Amino acid sequence: MVPGGGLSADRTTWLPSRAHFCVPVKALSPIYRAIFKADLRHAGLLEPMDPQVWTLPWNVHAQAHHHGPSAFTSLAPSVCKVASSNRRLVSRKDRTVTFTDRNVGSARLRTAHLDVMECLRRFLPHVLPDGFVNVRHGGFLPASCALPPATIRLMMGQGHPRDDQPPPRQLPQPLAVRCPTCGAPMRVVMRLWTSHNGFVETG
């Protein structure tokens, strides 16, 4: 998870990223490939790999979420649950796997059928090697950040106000009573109150 912006060099100002650019996704592809290759070499697992793997472009996916709630809605199932639990598996007949599924935002279960190899192809990308984590935090999100989140949120509001915030409410101006003779506004100099309820006209 990478926030859409960062702090200035002196850590006093929030600098938002451009509207259509945050992370150079194409530049990450060779970097990830090189890191993965170096880790395999260090673990002694590089020889069995097909050399053609290191000549092909790797796919690095990045998706922007402009609102926090939508980001957590799509991210939570990947973090809090496994890709597919055993109770979702209905049957396996010949080369067909039947399991239950549901559309995003719907509670109604449906039954899906996939070829066994296609089922494995969709499941295995969710299986992480040892030492890997589902979510990595970048920017100011790690716990080692020197500034507390409350201070950074305050900087965001000052330097980059949200578009969905309503404009500040303007209080109506008090009604000015004008003199019936000259038309000039009148101001209250003194208020006189009766000391007995009997003097108050009730109509």
Question: What features would you describe in this structure?
Answer:
Helix content is 25%, strand content 11%. With 203 residues, the chain is an alpha+beta fold. The strands form 2 sheets. A 3-stranded antiparallel sheet has the order 3-4-5. Strands 1-2 form a two-stranded antiparallel sheet. Strand 4 and strand 5 form a beta hairpin. The chain is elongated. It starts with a strand and ends in a 44-residue tail after the last helix.
Based on DSSP secondary structure assignment, what is the total number of beta strands? 5
The residue ranges in which pLDDT falls below 50 over 5 or more consecutive positions are 196-203
- N-to-C span: 71 Å
CA gyration radius, whole angstroms: 32 Å
Helix percent band = 25-40%
In what order do the strands lie side by side in the largest sheet?
A: 3-4-5
Helix-strand makeup class: alpha+beta
| Helical run tally | 4
Average pLDDT over all residues: 76
Summed up:
The chain has 203 residues and is of the alpha+beta class.
Question: Keywords, please?
Answer:
single chain, disordered C terminus, alpha+beta, 5 strands, two-stranded antiparallel sheet, 4 helices, three-stranded antiparallel β-sheet, 203 residues, 11% strand
